UniProtKB/TrEMBL annotation, chain A:
Keywords: Signal. Pfam families: Peptidase_C92. Residues 79-101 are annotated as: Disordered. It comes from the Bacteria. Residues 1-27 form the signal peptide. Residues 92-101 have a biased composition (Basic residues). The lineage of its organism: Bacteria, Bacillati, Actinomycetota, Actinomycetes, Micrococcales. Residues 79-91 have a biased composition (Low complexity). This is Permuted papain-like amidase enzyme, YaeF/YiiX, C92 family.
From TrEMBL, chain B:
This is Lipoprotein. Residues 1-22 form the signal peptide. It comes from the Bacteria. It comes from Brevibacterium antiquum. Keywords: Signal.
Amino acid sequence: MNRTVSSTIALVAISILTFGSLSPASATTETLSPAAQKQAQALVAESPELTESALVNDVEVYSASTGVSVESVLRQASSESAQSIEAASSSKKGKRTKKIGNAKHKGDVFVTPAFTGGVNHGHTGIYSAKPTIVEAPGTGKKSRSTSASSYKVPKKSYKMDVKTSQTKRNKAGSYAYNKLRGKKYSANFAVNKKTGSAKMNCSQLVWAAYKASVKIDLDGNGGLGVYPYNIKDSKHTHIYKTIK
Amino acid sequence: MKKLWWLCSASLIALLTGCSETPEPTTPTRDATTTDVIAAFTISRQQSGVVESDGKGYVVLVKEDGGTSVIETTIMQHAQLDWNKDKLAFSDTENDYIVGTSTEVIPTDTKTDYQQALSLSDDGTVIGLYNDGYEEDSYVEQLITSSTKGSDFTEVEGYFQVTGFCDGDLYGIAEPLGKYQAEAERQGVEAKEADGYTRLMLNQLTSGTTVEEENVSIQAVNSSGQESTDAPCVDGSLYHLASIYADSGETTPVLRIWDTDSGDMTELELVTADGEPVTGPDQSTFEINGSSQQSLRGNDFDWVDDFGRAWRTDITTGISQKLFELVDSYDNSTDTRVVDFTENALTVVTFQQEAEEVRLVQYDRNSGEVLTEIDLPDIAKTIDDSSIWAVSARD
């Protein structure tokens, strides 16, 4: 796994400056090193709906369960977030003017640009049936089904199938439909690779559908967090439609 | 970021500064009437992903002379409308609205932002169904009834892709989940295939304006897609189109007829008079565009495909004939087209994304003669990346 933290740190710094009003260091970050505090703040800046306390809480839980230090977790999560932004950087903010349409198969997935607070981490969902998308729409909303025929996306969106049998695709599509229910939305992409979370975000839902049902890990760069563009870039996915 | 809106006169395009580039439509009003209105349609952004939203939707009332009134609402994906005589009803997340000689606003409990059905009853009750999403063991939709006496909020179970009103009672068709999945198992209704929607249930959701959720039947079907927010119901039978998906990728259009008393379902493949399957142009994959409550007259079910062709299907045989072609230019990968049938006409509103044109056209539903054609440039320039979700024409 490539953990290089390159010029994306500069991007993170720019994000801090650009997206301004960061919460002051809370009691939960005060014990961290200055570098770790900055990384936590940067992660929050890159996920505008994520609070610092929620992030640190999830990081601490992960740290406690794995023995990896909080500071190491933050460092890695910061790197992955930057990589996600880098991966999405070729997609500019655009209008949702293209219809994504039906899938070729149940269990197919899509990735689209999606910006929040100016940050593009993308959005993803899974087809529980050829004409129906299951997605985690965002904060405050339940995961839900929506018609693919009228679902509009920006340019540089992708429809993909997973390189496996249709039987396994069906299982994953059904898993999303039957098992990943009642999940409230989580804004934490940084540490989200858990199949049994009470809260899930869009890429976590797609990742969990395949991981839990057929043990295929769609996270293209491994690590702690799975972002939409990690799914797009996964060796297990194959793009069959680029919406230009 | 805060958006700054500058309102302009009706003849100018509204400009704005700040982070968004979406101008506001012709000055919105909360004081519209249905005087001289021939049709209305809804505009809203879809809600998906962690995306920024200005939280606005619009209902555009179009007059005979091409003039418009625009009512600003909150966002409502798949927003529907319904006429009852001279009154028009629609909804957003916070209110139901009835427009007649004035605009009546009825506050409701906050709804989710995705609508599945809407009806305005004779007694002035608005009945709406909204797609909320997954709960722990089921799928939830919100059923809201409202009138000047107040509003009621109930949750029902199912993702209702097809809805329709039979003698004022709301029915819906969905895949059985939660307790209905258990009921399907109990009845021994086995899915035909493992892929897609292979069991569908017909549920009654209201008895008149009173919520009354009851499963009528569960049927095994071939893997298919079906979507109709205003399915016709005649003599207690609900009619809708569906597309059956083959592993080869081909789609086969069918007409399904559900008896709301017995729960029996009949499926007819749509074929031409020569017995050939109805296909897209050049044998391309077929897609249905729309039908509506008044699609059905006698034994004729009229509908529009995604290639701009109006069809008529005999509900006793499935034999379908192409009636005429629509005059609009439509790219089904980017453009939006919504349709509504009335007694004598087909009303179509099309938004062409590239050309930024919104056009309302009314056709004689038998001959295809163009009766009315209205361009709405001011509306077109403000749609941005929103969608037109539904049109409802006045009888």
